[in-house]
Write a sequence for this structure.
């Protein structure tokens, strides 16, 4: 996922059209389309919602209702590095709460927020199914298993020192 | 497109070629290096290991060696895992840089790479997979092909009796006889509730409708459960085949699988399986000239636990908010798009092909009187052998935790095990010897659930655990009905107060009353079972609740607000490390004198505990 494409989505309409045209105009395709939009833009921009609304003939309010219902869809762009800390039971039992606390402290944001410079966003996620490696956290698509506060610090140090 | 004859030929030829995967004395000069590509091992760089092996083999021009990606072997704690067949040698925690040594020593010179062999809990070095205690009491039916075949290669699936059950069903059985077989096998829904599968199938068959659907519930939201994911990742075709058999039995020609988007590998492999089956003419119109049509579609979830509830799942497939419908009508009569719909869980489907091929009698000979077959558990938490285990119904929790799981690490004591996730309850020491089946778990205040099994040692606070689960249900409550939306929120508020030392006399009774109301008045399974973690922890650990409330004490030391730190003057050497590291300057004391913590200033961050070299700081 490349999160740099989300600047108001200007000039991205062709991609939006490409996504839409790969689906038939059936209302049951809404969640499928939203998944693709979220994946591409890193969030669901208002313009995309409008385009979907027109394409599937679903009112904006209903689309908003669906977006806010599902945890995977967001209305704000995520950071360049999206840090997700698993709070599934297996990870919780192995102390992932401390890792989340440390992440909040280091980034100065709470779950669901993005840092002002847009570099990091933080999420407390549900089980990602890598319980064998608990506790785990992910940065974008990379999974870090058997995590400790120290390991989190090392990973954050690496990304923070980047320009 | 392949004719049935061509598929039979693939089965025969491939089976010979792959005999070494399951037969240690196979007559072959070939060697297969199997690299686990389940989610756990993939996260610890197993694709890189596979790539390295292939590169080295090419560079060295080694012949008769193949490197294959497989699904999960189960022992995730020892990953990434590499197995070499036919000799069945098991290497654990392999790193990409170890490949060279494995090739040179093992493949080229026939020696074992001792340092990568796995150590069992008793420190015995184990050469072969079957020697591990972890595997000794297991019986693999649903996971039969996981770790044996390449899940992205349909020919390998076909080699191990793949699509043979479908052939039997289409040519030798009527829809009614299929349903009779499934009923007679005693198979029950593996999603958690344990409804008899055959009954569900016959209800859907009997329902009137011009169009019917078959749905697979792969929205495995129960935190700590990953068996459905492993089946889809390790053996996706067995679910495709079972859904087709179900379609034939109930009279449906279209199937949907609803998978969590959080499982990208499972989604990818299942989609590949569908494409491959279509390519072979196994999915599509007029399959093998029998007149039977069937096709499948993948639908992605988007992160809502409640969508594991069958009617909420249907709402979500239809593109709406995943809010449960009122039952009746049940999906068997009015399901997807208002049509009769059969919904089963992944693990339930994974048993079907084996039941068809081996017969109902074989399946029902395994397990207990009312719960037949096996159950896959995702063993996690404070236990040595974390991973996926498949055991016959009726084994005891003690066998799973201590014999298969290898007991509790770090010399700690077993405190409780939680089954059924946020809908289940905890099981304590006194019930460790209960044979596990649907009924017995319910009678001790827990439930089978989808199969998450989290073990907790004595460092865990049970009040905090109940609070954790309630935090989950509050987040995941869809908001449709008041008892669940507001009731769980109130439960969480009360539990939070108790863990913060603000509990009052009578709180436990209030919790119990509210729990019972939520159970009775909620619309769907999520709300009806949400109080279970609270009720079962109160049942078994009432004294801990009372300690939190009356004595403002958390014996496990997990509830930070209740922690009172002090320095043991006997142990303190006055080194000053704690004082220098305290972020709020709450510690005072001269060098070589006993230091003191000011409870007013202390924020209980625990830094001093970690820093003190003499373990002098006590809570």
């Amino acid at each position: 996922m490349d999160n740099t494409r989300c600047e108001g989505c200007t000039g991205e309409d062709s991609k939006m059209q490409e996504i839409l045209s790969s689906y038939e105009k059936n209302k049951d395709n809404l969640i499928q389309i939203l998944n693709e939009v979220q994946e591409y833009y890193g969030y669901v921009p208002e313009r995309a919602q409008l385009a979907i609304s027109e394409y599937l003939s679903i009112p904006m309010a209903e689309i908003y209702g669906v977006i806010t219902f599902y945890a995977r869809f967001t209305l704000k762009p995520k950071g360049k590095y999206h840090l997700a800390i698993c709070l599934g039971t297996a990870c919780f039992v192995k102390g992932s709460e401390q890792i989340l606390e440390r992440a909040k402290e280091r980034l100065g944001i709470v779950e669901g927020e993005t840092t002002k410079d847009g570099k990091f966003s933080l999420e407390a996620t549900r089980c990602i199914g890598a319980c064998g490696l608990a506790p785990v956290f992910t940065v974008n698509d990379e999974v870090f298993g058997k995590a400790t506060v120290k390991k989190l610090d090392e990973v954050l140090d690496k990304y923070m020192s980047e320009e | 497109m392949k004719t049935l004859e061509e598929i039979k030929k693939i089965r025969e030829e491939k089976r010979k070629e792959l005999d070494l995967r399951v037969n240690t004395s196979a007559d072959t000069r070939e060697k297969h290096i199997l690299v686990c590509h389940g989610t756990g091992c993939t996260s610890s760089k197993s694709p890189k290991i596979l790539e390295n092996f292939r590169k080295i083999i090419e560079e060295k021009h080694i012949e008769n060696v193949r490197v294959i990606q497989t699904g999960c072997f189960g022992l995730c704690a020892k990953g990434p895992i590499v197995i070499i067949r036919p000799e069945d040698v098991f290497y654990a925690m392999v790193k990409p840089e170890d490949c060279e040594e494995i090739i040179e020593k093992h493949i080229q010179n026939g020696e074992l790479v001792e340092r990568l062999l796995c150590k069992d809990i008793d420190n015995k070095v184990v050469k072969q997979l079957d020697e591990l205690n972890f595997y000794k009491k297991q019986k693999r039916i649903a996971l039969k092909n996981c770790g044996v075949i390449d899940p992205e290669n349909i020919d390998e699936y076909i080699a191990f009796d793949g699509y043979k059950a479908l052939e039997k069903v289409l040519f030798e059985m009527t829809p009614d006889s299929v349903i009779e077989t499934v009923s007679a096998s005693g198979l029950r829904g593996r999603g958690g509730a344990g409804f008899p599968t055959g009954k569900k199938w016959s209800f859907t068959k009997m329902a009137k409708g011009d169009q019917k659907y078959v749905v697979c519930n792969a929205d495995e939201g129960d935190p700590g459960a990953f068996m459905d994911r492993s089946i889809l990742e390790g053996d996706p075709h067995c679910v495709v085949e079972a859904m087709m058999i179900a379609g034939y039995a109930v009279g449906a020609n279209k199937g949907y699988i609803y998978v969590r988007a959080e499982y990208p590998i499972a989604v990818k492999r299942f989609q590949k399986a569908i494409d491959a089956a279509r390519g072979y003419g196994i999915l599509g119109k007029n399959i093998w000239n029998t007149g039977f049509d069937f096709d499948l579609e993948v639908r992605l979830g988007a992160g809502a636990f409640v969508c594991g509830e069958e009617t909420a799942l249907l709402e979500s497939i239809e593109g709406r908010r995943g809010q449960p419908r009122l039952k009746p009508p049940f999906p068997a009569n009015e399901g997807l798009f208002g049509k009769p719909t059969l919904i089963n869980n992944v693990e339930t489907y994974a048993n079907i092909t084996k039941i068809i091929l081996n017969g109902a009698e074989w399946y029902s000979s395994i397990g207990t009187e009312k719960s037949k077959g096996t159950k896959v558990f995702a063993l996690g938490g404070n236990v040595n052998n974390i991973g996926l285990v498949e055991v016959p119904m009726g084994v005891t929790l003690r066998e799973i935790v201590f014999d298969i799981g290898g007991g509790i690490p770090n010399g700690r004591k077993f405190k409780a095990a939680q089954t059924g996730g946020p809908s289940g309850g905890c099981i304590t020491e006194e019930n460790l010897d209960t044979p596990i089946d649907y009924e017995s778990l319910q009678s001790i205040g827990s439930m089978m659930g989808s199969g998450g099994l989290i073990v907790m040692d004595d460092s865990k606070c049970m009040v905090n655990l109940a609070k954790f689960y309630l935090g989950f249900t509050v987040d995941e409550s869809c908001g449709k009905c008041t008892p669940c939306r507001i009731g769980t929120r109130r439960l969480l508020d009360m539990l939070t107060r108790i863990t913060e030392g603000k509990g009052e006399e009578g709180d436990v009774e209030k919790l119990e009353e509210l729990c019972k109301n939520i159970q009775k008045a909620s619309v769907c399974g999520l709300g009806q079972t949400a109080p279970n973690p609270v009720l079962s922890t109160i049942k078994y650990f009432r004294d801990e609740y009372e300690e939190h409330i009356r004595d403002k004490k958390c014996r496990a030391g997990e509830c930070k607000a209740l922690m009172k730190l002090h320095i043991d003057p006997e142990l303190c050497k006055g080194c000053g490390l704690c004082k220098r590291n305290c972020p709020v300057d709450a510690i005072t004391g001269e060098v070589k004198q006993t230091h003191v913590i000011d409870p007013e200033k202390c924020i209980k961050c625990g830094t001093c505990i970690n820093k003190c070299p003499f373990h002098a700081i006590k809570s």
User: Anything to note?
Assistant: The mean pLDDT of chain B is 94. Chain B has 24 helices and 19 strands. The first helix of chain B runs from residue 4 to 17. Chain B has five domains: 4-135, 161-359, 374-457, 462-551, 564-619.
